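in:
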């Protein structure tokens, strides 16, 4: 009852889901049960929510999983046709081309892809995360390369919100109703204002909203009332 009413904490919701619902939630943390900090119903206004659901939004991705097996194998392979091609590779391509660089993705050679596709998930995780590339690295690289904490290439979003982006963020926050009428304007403004003040906990959400607003403004996106 607590889960269905949206009163349960996100951690409980995650543990209660199974099957397709669990895959969807774990993939994007975008659940229809109001259980997480990025719950689908938390950020959109009621008019928009009455016309759409997270099932519709995620249908392409869920269909890919079903097409590729409907299990953990399908989940992994679906990344090739969605997250990898539409996110990671796009960013790599654009960022390298913008600076006249040649980028190569070594794991995407045809023979490597064919071999990886033939393996089961149990082989990939037999000795921990990324066990196959780690085993290969151990043969040719020193421990200082493969035996160290994970380190990403992060943008100093928190600092930029309080400095270089400050005026832009305030301007975008005042225009949420025009640029993204499907967003709950009050929550969106609060999120962006908190980011500017440095008090927001979820900088990535504020950053995602800011990027969308800038994109919508740049392209003069028009929204229909229908």
């Amino acid at each position: 009852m607590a889960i269905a009413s949206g009163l349960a904490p996100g951690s409980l919701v995650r543990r209660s889901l199974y099957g397709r619902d669990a895959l969807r939630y774990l993939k994007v943390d975008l659940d229809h049960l109001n259980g997480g900090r990025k719950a689908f119903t938390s950020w959109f206004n009621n008019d928009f929510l009455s016309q759409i659901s997270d099932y519709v939004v995620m249908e392409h991705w869920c269909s890919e999983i079903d097409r590729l097996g409907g299990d953990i194998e399908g989940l992994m392979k679906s990344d090739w046709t969605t997250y990898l091609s539409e996110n990671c590779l796009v960013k790599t391509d654009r960022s390298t081309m913008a600076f006249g660089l040649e980028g190569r993705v070594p794991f995407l050679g045809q023979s490597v892809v064919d071999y990886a596709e033939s393996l089961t998930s149990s082989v990939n995780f037999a000795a921990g995360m990324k066990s196959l590339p780690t085993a290969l690295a151990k043969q040719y690289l020193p421990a200082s390369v493969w035996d160290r904490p994970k380190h990403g290439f992060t943008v100093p979003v928190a600092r930029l919100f309080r400095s270089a982006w400050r005026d832009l963020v305030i301007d975008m926050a005042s225009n949420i109703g025009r640029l993204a009428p499907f967003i709950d304007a009050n929550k969106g403004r609060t999120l962006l204002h908190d980011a500017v003040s440095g008090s927001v906990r979820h900088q990535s959400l504020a950053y995602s909203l800011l990027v969308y607003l800038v994109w919508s403004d740049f392209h003069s996106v028009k929204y229909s009332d229908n």
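note: The chain has three domains: 10-57, 73-146, 157-217.
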